[in-house]
């Protein structure tokens, strides 16, 4: 799985990069056919935003999350993507 992490109005430090990588690498436990993940982290005044696009076989999944804390936004993003991956896998298995 190829992962691209970028930041708008934010410098991506090593701890942030490691945290995002650790959280989103768990997605492969549910669905192994993920080819690429693109993550964009943004700061707008007091709101931290995290957006991600997951390219997998058969679908492109998108999720975003906002929170006052960047790490909490990344956690929420990971949970949303996790649910979407499981739903996609169940649909894919049904066919």
How much is the radius of gyration in Å?
13 Å
Structural class: alpha+beta
Q: Strand order, main sheet: write it out.
A: 1-2-3-4
The CATH topology comes to Double Stranded RNA Binding Domain
Ranges where pLDDT stays below 50 over 5 or more residues in a row are none
**Mean pLDDT across all residues, rounded?**
91
**Can you say what the CATH homologous superfamily is?**
Ribosome hibernation promotion factor-like
Could you give the distance between the termini?
Answer: 24 Å
What report would you give on this structure?
Helix 1 (14-25) runs parallel beside helix 2. The radius of gyration is 13 Å and the shape is elongated. The protein has helices spanning 14-25, 70-94, and strands spanning 2-8, 34-44, 47-56, 59-67. The model has no long low-confidence stretch (mean pLDDT 91). The chain has two helices and four strands; from the N terminus they run E-H-E-E-E-H. The protein has a single domain (2-94), classed as Double Stranded RNA Binding Domain (2-Layer Sandwich), CATH 3.30.160. It has a four-stranded mixed β-sheet with strand order 1-2-3-4, covered by helices on one side. With 95 residues, the protein is of the alpha+beta class.
Secondary structure layout:
Elements: E1 2-8, H1 14-25, E2 34-44, E3 47-56, E4 59-67, H2 70-94
Parallel strand pairs: 1-2
Antiparallel strand pairs: 2-3, 3-4
Helix pairs in contact: 1-2
Gist?
The chain is of the alpha+beta class.
Please name the defining characteristics of this protein.
95 residues; alpha+beta; Double Stranded RNA Binding Domain; 39% helix; elongated
């Amino acid at each position: 799985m190829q992962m691209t992490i970028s930041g708008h109005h934010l410098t991506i430090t090593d701890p942030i990069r490691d945290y995002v990588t650790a959280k989103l690498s768990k997605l492969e436990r549910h669905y192994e056919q993920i080819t690429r993940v693109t993550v964009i982290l943004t700061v707008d005044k007091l709101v931290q935003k995290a957006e991600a696009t997951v390219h997998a076989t058969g679908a492109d999944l998108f999720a975003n999350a906002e929170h006052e804390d960047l790490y909490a936004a990344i956690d929420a993003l990971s949970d949303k993507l996790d649910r979407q991956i499981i739903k996609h896998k169940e649909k894919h298995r049904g066919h």
